[in-house]
Write a structure and sequence with these properties.
The complex is a heterodimer of chains A (about 250) and B (about 375). With about 250 residues, chain A is mainly alpha-helical. Chain A contains ten helices and no strands. In chain A, α3 runs parallel beside α6. Chain B contains 16 helices and ten strands. Classes of the chains: A mainly alpha (about 250), B alpha/beta (about 375).
Chain lengths: ~250, ~375
């Protein structure tokens, strides 16, 4: 019963939204270049899977590689630096300052000397994922409760024992959370950066189709984008849940 | 259990209310129109949406504002800048602007989708768009573009390059590679693309400013190549036109005066745009002055001189429509376009009566 409710109510809500959307567009004769009804989007979603898939995989290459790279490098930098307190503080400060800059503005500049190809976008995604991950890693590595650290010291635990058995397990929930939030950052970055010149990808596809008022195609692209993003996000969410459960 | 059920029901009701409110919001946004009167209630208000950011391309409208030509017509004109992701046609159709400076190539796909948008005055008498390649990329003639990387500005500015490609008998999806072009020319400079979109009054000048000589470059003038479309016309929605003829006549008259002044006092006009001129790029003052010279050429070309500024050349408009219908599949697949229904000479005829244009022969 409970499970049934969990799925039925959102489903009803969605159907209601779609019906109201459809009726609103029809009754008020809203221009097809502003809003199209779901009945026009549905068939395009089915017909244009392969076209959109091609663009989406172009963008997801940037997203997955960039996100992994940014996360991994940030983690490694944090691991190698956190023991040196003043260096860690300095890095955190620098990262916080850089994070305050709307880095997406880099999209327009990076294109100037690195080109507007897939690798530039990937790099941009990596940079945008790097800083939050670095800040969170450094702060969680350096904020382990003193009594635990003292205990490990008392038993003369080595650096690696201390890191693997104490610091990492303690920090993992925060790290996983950042990685999860970064999936959205990565996607936004990739899409927005494609607005400033690109060789392909869902961002420039949407922009270009929008320019020809092909709204059913734009909505279909957004539909698949939501699905792809949700899958990526849910995988991270499951990983996080799995870890906290097991922990 | 009972309690849980009733709370779910109330959640559903709240959800429904939210959805209805969103629906009403959409309708409001889709149906609203800008205020008709200025704040003091004395002047008629008009919102003008530009095609792009303020620059020499729109100098005449800023001159009309600064020299008080709009005020003389008892108009308060709010000039809205365009930019990345702002399509003037969308803004017009959504009712956020009364008049839009738009490219015919960007308007035709909307008309082919059933929009009733009307040209009331033709700003530029021909297309200012060129496609430019470095000679060393092997592009010397239109036929050489096969399997090359071609830059276009995504979001409604692709119709002319797309027509150019189709005119060479090439399929833009298979025979060439379409790259979405950034708003500088770096992709051309570092050979990321071989053929780039450029405006005579902006990017082409930028290429020369970066040290390229005309003899290093192949420039396809789209107007001369039969794939150019009329640009920077004043478009309004049909219902606005029907109800506000008098306002539009006054607006066009002031714009004619503004543009007449801008093409005859180019440096002064550039200074009236209200740009910062700070950066050493396309926004720099020397660049904008060169740009203004090119813009003036497009404005006074052909019928712009013989008939007067903003004259709508029927033959050229018909030509633009036929290029779009023959070479741009988005227009071809849409509703058949009747040239006589997408412009009116009426506003121009009325506005023209009280304007004395300068002599442009010596420019």
């Amino acid at each position: 019963m409970k499970n049934k409710q969990k799925y039925i109510y959102p489903l009803i809500a969605w159907i209601v939204v779609l019906v109201i959307w459809e009726i609103t567009v029809r009754i008020f004769a809203i221009s097809p270049i502003i809003l199209v009804p779901p009945s026009q989007i549905g068939p395009v979603i089915i017909d244009s899977f392969s076209v959109i898939y091609q663009q989406l995989s172009f963008t997801f290459y940037e997203v997955i590689i960039g996100w992994s790279l940014g996360t991994l490098v940030a983690f490694l930098v944090a691991v190698s630096c956190f023991s040196f307190k003043s260096l860690a503080n300095l890095l955190t400060l620098a990262a916080v300052i850089v994070s305050a800059v709307p880095l997406i503005a880099l999209a327009a500049i990076l294109g100037g000397f690195l080109g507007t190809g897939q690798n530039t976008k990937t790099l941009l995604v990596a940079i945008l994922c790097f800083f939050p991950m670095l800040i969170v890693s450094l702060s969680s590595f350096t904020r382990i409760e003193r009594s635990y650290l003292n205990l490990f010291r008392t038993y003369q635990a080595s650096w690696s024992q201390r890191f693997l058995k104490l610091i990492l397990p303690q920090s993992l929930p925060a790290l996983l959370n950042t990685m999860k939030i970064n999936t959205v950052t990565a996607l936004t970055t990739a899409i927005v950066s494609e607005f400033f010149g690109a060789h392909g990808g869902i961002g420039q596809f949407i922009l270009s189709r929008k320019g020809f008022y092909d709204l059913p195609m734009v909505w279909a692209a957004i539909f698949y984008l939501i699905i792809a993003t949700s899958i990526f996000y849910l995988i991270m969410n499951m990983l996080q849940k799995f870890y906290s459960h097991w922990h | 259990m009972q309690e849980q059920k009733s709370s779910s029901t109330s959640m559903l009701v709240i959800g429904l209310v939210v959805v209805v409110l969103i629906g009403l919001g959409i309708v409001y946004l889709a149906k609203k129109s800008p205020d008709k009167k200025s704040a003091d209630g004395k002047k008629d208000k008009i919102v003008l949406q530009l095609k792009w950011v303020p620059q020499a391309q729109f100098a005449g409208y800023f001159v009309a504002d600064k020299k008080g030509y709009f005020a003389d017509e008892n108009l308060e004109v709010e000039v809205r800048a365009g930019g990345v992701g702002i399509n003037p046609v969308d803004v017009l159709v959504a009712g956020d602007a009364d008049v839009a400076v738009a490219w015919t190539g960007n308007v035709l796909p909307a008309i082919a989708k059933g929009e009733d948008i009307v040209n009331i005055g033709q700003g530029f008498q021909k297309s200012g768009m060129v496609l430019v390649a470095k000679k060393k990329s092997g592009i010397n003639a239109p036929a050489d573009i096969k399997s090359k990387k071609i830059g276009v500005w995504a979001g409604g500015n692709e119709t002319e390059p797309f027509a150019f490609i189709a005119k060479q008998g090439l399929d833009r999806d298979k025979d060439v590679q379409i790259i979405s072009q950034a708003f500088d020319m770096n992709q051309l400079f570092n050979d990321e693309i071989q053929l780039a979109s450029a405006m005579t009054y902006n990017e082409l000048e930028l290429v020369y400013e970066n040290g390229y000589k005309p003899e290093d470059l192949t420039v396809f003038n789209l107007d001369e190549n039969g794939s150019g479309m009329l640009q920077d016309a004043l478009f309004v929605k049909r219902d606005y036109l029907t109800n506000n003829k008098d306002i539009l006549v006054r607006f066009l008259r002031a714009s004619m005066k503004g543009w007449d002044y801008a093409v005859t006092h180019q440096e002064e006009a550039v200074d009236m745009i209200g740009m910062d001129f700070a950066a050493n790029d396309v926004t720099a003052r020397p660049h904008q002055i060169k740009s203004m010279a090119q813009v003036a050429k497009l404005t006074i070309a052909d019928k712009g001189t013989s008939e007067g500024l903003f004259y709508i050349d029927q033959t050229k408009l018909a030509n633009t429509v036929s290029i779009a219908e023959n070479f741009v599949k988005e227009v071809k697949e849409g509703k058949k376009i009747d040239v006589n229904k997408i412009y009116t000479q009426e506003i121009w005829d009325e506005a023209r009566k009280d304007v004395k244009f300068s002599d442009y022969k010596n420019l």
